[in-house]
Amino acid sequence: MEAITVKEREYLRDLAKKQQEYAEEERNLQAIKLWKQHNSFCGSRPPVVIEEIGFWEQIRPRFYCSSEMGQFMENKLLQATVPISLIGDDRIIEDYFSIDAPISSDTYGIVMERKKAGGVENVGYRDVYAIEDLETDLDGLQASKFYFDEEKMKRQIDICSDILDGILPVRVENRTLDWSGIAERMIHLMSMENLCIAMYDCPNKVHEFVKFVTDDLLNFAKWQEEQGILTPNWNLQRCCGVSYGITDELPQGKRKNTELEKGRTDIRLKDLWINTNAQETVVISKDMYIEFFLSHYQRLTQEFGLVYYGCCEPVHTVFENGLDQIENLRKLSISPWCNEEMIAEQLQGKKIIYSRKISPNYLGVGHNLDEQAFRKHIRKTLDTAKGLEIEILSRDVYMLDGNIKKLARATEIIREEIER
Questions:
Q1: What is the pLDDT of residues 240-252, one digit of tens each?
Q2: From the CB of residue 20, how many other CB atoms can be counted at a distance below 10 Å?
Q3: Which of 297 and 126 is assigned the larger pLDDT?
Q4: Which CATH number applies to 6-419: 3.20.20.210, 1.20.950.20, 3.40.50.1000, 3.20.20.80?
Q5: Residues contacting residue 28 through CB under 8 Å, at least 6 positions apart
Q6: Per-residue confidence (pLDDT) for residue 110, from 0 to 100
Q7: Rounded to whole angstroms, how far apart are CA atoms 343 and 384?
Q8: What are the start-end ranges of the H helices in 149-274?
Q9: Rounded to an integer, what distance in angstroms lies between the CA atom of residue 371 and that of residue 238?
């Protein structure tokens, strides 16, 4: 690996100082307070976050560093600081530098192949499916084996700590359970069309398939707990997609060590949020969702402390006598395809946060922001969900058409409508 040069080191330390300054600013302290109160159902206003991941390459300054490790650190430091001035939302700036825990698996004992689309965004992909026919191919899957590269983690800690010494501490974050969808894992193994046909042709095999995938995911989670490699997601981290889960309700009980960089942790699954969804099941009925999937999502989520459920699926179709059976459900994704009136009525009186995902079309389509239409879009949510604890999130925006100024303007409009 190419070494980080002296000039790169100086540059990275300057970026780290900027992140530290942002983390200590009153704006950040107020954002932490806002999310904490919000997650306790006593927020002063709905928090707002516009996720930058989809269009990051369009707003990121050109890399100064040329070394691989330098660019890795530069990218993370820029991602912590650049969006503040460009977007101005309620994101939390962490007072540390994080690296991902090097955890992996052999995915069911098979090689899973994915062919990605070309282009700048590189969003689309096509899986090469391991299962064509459940009757004949399911037995070819094996329980996954899991791996933790502790030596790699220590090397990364040493490099980053040396560069950032005296500015930002280095933390290890385990994000392997941040996106724990059962249906998603199934669709990567088998096409949606073939799976839907199998629900009619061989329902018993589908039940077996769902159970196998859920068991494997639970084994992965419990293995991490046993290995002592879980890390917090109840503090300053985005733990629910783009939503923050900072709360006093977690962890459940005192823990001797919650910092993996200091040694194995004693964090339990019950101390954590889980972020899960079944957006791939939108093509089946509520009865079929309940028959094939609900009990397994209950099995998965009951192992954790709090649950964020949903992504792009319209959850109003499966909430009553369905998702409401998930006892520790705390945040529910209200996607652009959700019937807001229906789900808002269903959530009244329940301790579940209305996590609104606004339509990406306003920011992602066209050069100019249609302010009147966008304002109307936000107003509808605020009026429909009145009386509920609301958070407003923007995700899945991949193109800005050369106009980055509409990011801050969108944030301003949302806040203006909230304050009306």
A1: 889 999 999 999 9
A2: 18
A3: 297
A4: 3.20.20.210
A5: 22, 92, 93
A6: 85
A7: 9
A8: 150-164, 182-189, 192-201, 203-227
A9: 28
